[in-house]
Amino acid sequence: MDAFREELQLVLLAPDTPRVRLRAVWDVLTRLGVNRPESHRVFPLLHAHGIQRWVSPAVLRELNRAAGRAFHLCTAVLEEGVQKGVFRAHDTRAMADTIWALFVGTVQLHAARENLGLPTRPLEVVCAQAWDTLETGLLLR
Question: By CB neighbour count within 10 A (0-12 exposed, 13-18 middle, 19+ buried), where does 18 fall?
Answer without folding.
Answer: buried
